[in-house]
Structures are given as structure tokens and as C-alpha cells.
Amino acid sequence: MEKEIKNLREQFKKRLASLETRPELQKIENEYIGRKGLIAQMLKRMSLLSAAEKPKVGQLLNKLKTDLQDALAEKKKELAKGISGEQGYIDITLPGQNFSRGTMHPVELILKETKNIFLGMGFSIVDGPEIELDYYNFEALNIPKDHPARDVQDSFYITPDILLRTQTSPMQVRTMENQSPPVRIVSAGKCFRRDSIDNTHTPMFHQIEGLAVDVDLSLSDLKGVITEFCKQIFGKDRIIRFRPGYFPFVEPGAEVDVSCGLCQGKGCSSCGYSGWLEIMGAGMVHPHVLEMVGYDTEKYTGFAFGMGAERIAMLKYDINDIRLFFENDIRFLTQFK
Ligand code: DAH
User: Fold this and answer.
1) Residue 100 CA, distance from chain mean position
2) Which of 32, 200, 251, 309 could form a disulfide with 206 if both were Cys (CB 3.0 to 4.6 A apart)?
3) Cα separations (Å) of 131 from 107, 170, 193, 196, 282?
């Protein structure tokens, strides 16, 4: 049996040297020192030996077993290094560590989606300052110092001439000052108003502004663009309606409603039983605004529209309180993908 032990040792050495993976190592481990492995079988056969031979062979077998165990442990370490470099052993069979992925804020989702829709209709995106001159925020939009339209848009003033913008409409003027027609832009971003907080008002909110100026633009172009936008953001079966509305920088001006998606315009509690939901202000750019930027009002006409991103999000996702957007409750925020 001594010879057999020696052979086994040699054979094991060779196989250990040539193996490269953990499963192979596991297999050899079972084969040699497992419960029914080769060494175990030899130990069993010791009962057949003479009393004189037993202790010696016993010793040899025990030594063989510990040697093989040491060699296997050494080889395990070596293989682990191959997987994880110098840092130690990584068990690649463990399940991965879960880390929670962030989700896009619902308002950001609306801004992105809206911009994409208008990009698809040939508009480009422009960005403007949140700290704005009174001139752009009001004056150039046909809202002089004593105009009552300023009452509903009180702001946070930095100086009498500089304020946090109350609307994104100033980007109409800034854009027109810098380019000649045709103009087709969308501008989105934060606006600020000195409003009391309730379920539809927060002192900071987001607006999306649109402006197109070209030859022969008419109200039907505006209607077409807004209809397409509503279908894309709310669903194909939605229709829109225009009601007369006053905004100093458009003439005629309109409030735009979209048909309620819950009741298909029949009237339900969600739309105040009217069948309609108000989504934006819009109109044909007032000739005075075009004149202020030096456009030829005989040649060019334009349309403009402006909407609250939070309002669109509330309608699209059926949210009843604007404050939810800003409370940073993960349970709320992770619902929008
Ligand atoms: N800026 C307006 C507001 O905050 C919304 C608006 C109305 C924008 C009509 C427009 C427009 O561009 O044409 O109330």
C-alpha cells in the first residue's frame, strides 16, 4: 500500500498543477479527500493489513491527507487571486449587491417629453436666466409699470429693475432680439412668484414657453401645434378647445383646455364636471411686442404659448397636490419612470 500512497500523491500533484477553475478544484477535492474519496477508501482497506503494517500505513495516509488539504487550500488562494487581483478572494457565486437606482423627477420627465415633442415639430430649445430684468419680464411684453397684469405676478425683487422671473415669456423677447424670423423656439425652466403655498401654488415652479414667428402664421397654426402636443403628451383621443383669454403680449389671447381623459369630456369630479382641463395660455403675438424687437409687423406674425410643467404633470399623472413635487418623498418620486 505504501507504493500506492506514493503513486496517489504523484498523480494528485500533477492534476492539481494543471487545474484552472474552482469547479475543477472542487472535483479533485471530492475525489481525493471526500467522504467516499480515494483516501477514505484506502483507510477502509487498512483492516486487511497485518498488525505490524497498520500503524505505518495509517501514519502515511494521515500525512497524505493533510498534505493534500494544504495543497488544495494553497491552490484555492491562487485561483482567488486570479479573480480578484491582490485584494483577496471574491466569491463570484454570491448574489450581486443591490443598489437602488434613481428615477427621474416627474417634472423633469414632463420637461424632457415636452421638449422632445416640440423638437419633433421643428422647434429648437433655448435657455434663459432665472434672474431677469424687469424690462424682459414685463415691459417688453406689453406690461408697463402701472399695468394691473403685474398684480398676479408679484415677484422677488433684487432691485426695482431686477427680479426672479415670474414667467418664461421673457425668452420670447430675448430670442427675437437675437435672431430674425423665422423663429421657432421652446424654452423651459424655473419661475418664481410671491404666492402663498396651497395645493396648486408654490413660490417656485416650472414653465414651458413656445414661440413661432414667420410669414403667414395664423391661429390655425397655433391650434395645430397645440393639438399635436396634447395628443402626444396626453393621448391620441384628446381634443382641445380655445377660450378667449387675456394676456397683454398676445392678441387675440386664449386659454387652452384639453378634454378630460377620465370622462372623455362627459364631465366628472376630476374636471369639475365641465369635461375640460385648462392647460395653458396662448395667442397671436401682439404687434407691439414684435415692434419692440424691430420686427416688420406688416410682414411677420407669430404665435406663443406658455404652460406650467407641474400642472401638466398633475394632469398627466393624476396628482392632486403640487407640493408633492417638492417634498422629496422617495415613495412619491419613484413612481414615475
Ligand atoms: N406667461 C403666461 C403666464 O404665466 C402664460 C402665457 C400666456 C404664455 C399666453 C404665453 C402666452 O406665451 O401666449 O400666465
Assistant:
1) 13
2) 309
3) 21, 11, 12, 21, 24
Q: What is the DSSP letter of 68?
A: H
Highest mean pLDDT among 11-25, 91-105, 194-208: 194-208
Number of other CB atoms surrounding residue 178 within 10 Å = 10
Residue-wise DSSP of 254-271? EEEEEE-TTTTTS--GGG
Please tell me whether residue 235 adopts helix, strand or coil conformation. coil
Residue 84 banded pLDDT, cuts 50, 70, 90: low
Residue 331: partners with Cβ closer than 8 Å, 6 or more residues away: none
Q: 191: which 3 cell numbers?
A: 419661475
Q: Could you tell me the residue ranges of all domains in the chain?
A: 2-80, 106-333
Which protein residues touch ligand 1 with a CB less than 6 Å away?
167, 169, 209, 247, 250, 281-283, 304-306
* pLDDT of the residue at 82: 65
What's the grid cell of residue 165? Answer: 422671473
The candidate with the shortest Cα–Cα distance to 208, out of 63, 108, 59, 82, is 108
User: Any idea what DSSP says for residue 23?
Assistant: H
CATH superfamily of 106-333: Bira Bifunctional Protein; Domain 2 (3.30.930.10)
To test the pocket of ligand 1, the residue of 114, 155, 169, 222 to mutate (highest count of ligand atoms within 8 Å of its CB) is: 169
The residue among 34 and 214 whose pLDDT is bigger is 214
**Which has the higher per-residue pLDDT, 74 or 138?**
138
CA atoms of 19 and 159, how far apart (whole Å): 78
d(CA 5, CA 39): 9
**The ligand 1 atom nearest the CA atom of 306:** 8
Do 313 and 105 contact (CB within 8 A), yes or no? no
CA 330 to chain centroid, in Å, comes to 14
